[in-house]
Amino acid sequence: MYEPPTESTEEHPGEIGLVQWNDFHWEDSFVCDSGDELAGFTIRYETYGKLNAEKSNAVLICHALSGDHHCAGIHSLSDKKPGWWNNLIGPGKPVDTNKYFVVCTNCLGGCQGSTGPTAINPKTNKPYNLDFPLVSVRDMVRAQHLLFTKGLGLSGIYSVIGGSMGGMQVLQWGIEYPGFVEKLIPMATTARQNAQAIAFNEVGRLAIMQDPEWQEGDYEEGKGPNVGLAVARMMAHITYLSDAGLEEKFGRDKVLKPAARSHFDAEFQVESYLRYQGQSFINRFDANSYLYLTKALDRFDLFSPSGQLEDQLEKIRSRTLVIGFKSDWLFPPGQNRIIVHAMLRCGLDATYAELDLTLGHDSFLVHAPDLYTLIRNFLAA
Amino acid sequence: MYEPPTESTEEHPGEIGLVQWNDFHWEDSFVCDSGDELAGFTIRYETYGKLNAEKSNAVLICHALSGDHHCAGIHSLSDKKPGWWNNLIGPGKPVDTNKYFVVCTNCLGGCQGSTGPTAINPKTNKPYNLDFPLVSVRDMVRAQHLLFTKGLGLSGIYSVIGGSMGGMQVLQWGIEYPGFVEKLIPMATTARQNAQAIAFNEVGRLAIMQDPEWQEGDYEEGKGPNVGLAVARMMAHITYLSDAGLEEKFGRDKVLKPAARSHFDAEFQVESYLRYQGQSFINRFDANSYLYLTKALDRFDLFSPSGQLEDQLEKIRSRTLVIGFKSDWLFPPGQNRIIVHAMLRCGLDATYAELDLTLGHDSFLVHAPDLYTLIRNFLAA
């Protein structure tokens, strides 16, 4: 049986320790890119470190599809794991909370406290479910901007950092609010979803929507299409890793054979690992939210109808470091590189680093000293 | 809505035309690699062309996971499509039925007429379902060998050809019956399933087994876990293609928007295409058979416990041409190349060709003149 490793923190200079979340409530109308209107929304967020007197040291962390606002520290002393980017963020770490005021939000449409399909629709006093509007990556960024300007009273951000869907948000920040952000660090991302990425998302959505427990999205809280959601997660999880990474970690290693085993019980370690990933996901993620967020990914497209990236990217006024990972086959290096090339064609301040990490798309989430050096120095420069 | 293309045959020199299948019944005991015993089995097969007087011109075609014995010609004048390798096989084609006596079998464990989990268990007079023994690729080959020796009365085969799971059978033929086959052509295959390929198969199996209609494998004929099977097929189908191939074929093209569309209806052409693939699969494939055949793939491993391929491959006495496809990421070129390298280290007559086709793993199934030339000339040499 697969057992998740406990995380070692001994290499890290310091830990944030206990953290709490906050909620920002926007009580006015918010019109989504789809044209649909929300009467208001909540954005759940965490902050680490202190805002300086000049209000110039804010760093925004944007999470990926299955992430949330809890990217560093622990919520309770009994937590088995810290936030999802705890390797990167903390006192003395690359995103140094002794220097920066770090903010991380759960995205609009998410299911960890921000308004999404599980939220109560004020018109019906029931959960929105599929009455929730289709949200876009740009909607997520506009909601974050309201938090920063109206909630936190800031008129600028030092840096926005994120991978995958987080990287899409980083790019959208630069385009939507030119001059607001000094430094952008998008990584393992793309300027638009390609057909293969859409295809995988679609299979995941169909696994959810064809689960009888989905009930056209109107499942009760705590119930729902757990089987479909687990299948979607297991499949997606393979796309976040790499052939070589899986081979190195699991190869053809077998699980200990139980006394009685039916033909199709988990036989290989990689099967047991995937089953664990699927099961743990259904305990922390809402299936409808998964549909909405994957759809936001699929609709993300910075290209103009004539096939140019420059029309959008030329608006950026931030120094930009794009980071790609050689083993990432979901958003492979080429998809990251073209972002920088388009920015350079626009005469903008952009650069590209490609790291030879073997763990695939999720390389940005693992312990990666080369990545940390890049981020630390780009922020300090 | 995706519409499958009708197949053009105008480039081909000739067509086989109407064909029929035959059944070979083996009435004796057959002990599987698992140790379980079948009291007998049926292998459904088709033949094209004529056996020569010397009985020296037989060519065996081995199908992949979702294939069957119907690889060329048509069963009825109203058939919309010919057999799955009709591009390759026929009068004047690379596998020339004017010269060769071509045989293609449905594999043991399959669901198109050969004995598999849908067959009637003589002990219970009910379908085997999960009482069917786990079959291996070697079992499939041993059943084919009985057809050739006891059924067709042959003491040798001129060539065995196949891709993917078919390629595994080709290798196993060379190992199991040294000297029986003159020429082996395995393509888009591997000497063992790696962790990533096992992982995708496992997600497919879980999608099937967690569908409530699966009923622990005891679903009624005509019913069954169609949702799970379609999800498994859609996901697997992505792995048979390639990033570039999907991008070229579909990109971000959209389906025509219906008057009313819910949030998660198919929006992109690639989604509509995948839905079509899933739906058409459930009409022709049995879910339990899918479990058994993917398990046979996952257990396929020609490496010795000490990590050597030579122990098995040194037995081969056939001229061997291994063909890999650059865009195949399920069984990528490297996995094909090492087969030849190991054979060369054994001093055997093996060579390797790598084709720069863009359509991924399924490249061997599409119209590919370079592939046809390789096969035609290797057979003629």
What features would you describe in this structure?
2 copies of one chain form a homodimer. The N and C termini of chain A lie far apart (46 Å). The first copy, chain A, is 31% helix and 17% strand. An 8-stranded mixed beta sheet of chain A has the order 1-4-8-5-11-12-13-14, with helices on both faces. Chain A has a two-stranded antiparallel ribbon with strand order 2-3. In chain A, α1 (137-151) crosses α2 (165-176) and α3 (195-209) runs antiparallel to α4 (226-240). With 381 residues, chain A is of the alpha/beta class. The radius of gyration of chain A is 20 Å and the shape is globular. The first copy, chain A, has a domain at 21-199 and 301-380: Alpha/Beta hydrolase fold, catalytic domain (Rossmann fold, 3-Layer(aba) Sandwich), CATH 3.40.50.
Proportion of residues in β-strands of chain A: 15-25%
CATH superfamily of the domain at 21-199 and 301-380 in chain A: Alpha/Beta hydrolase fold, catalytic domain
Q: Strand order of the main beta sheet of chain A, please?
A: 1-4-8-5-11-12-13-14
Number of strands of chain A: 14
Q: Which outline of chain A best applies?
A: globular
Helix content of chain A: 25-40%
Radius of gyration of chain A: 20 Å
Contiguous uncertain segments of 5+ residues of chain A: none
* CATH third-level topology of the domain at 21-199 and 301-380 in chain A: Rossmann fold
- Determine the oligomeric state from the structure: homodimer
**Which CATH first-tier class of the domain at 21-199 and 301-380 in chain A would you pick?**
Alpha Beta
Largest interface: A-B, 52 and 52 residues
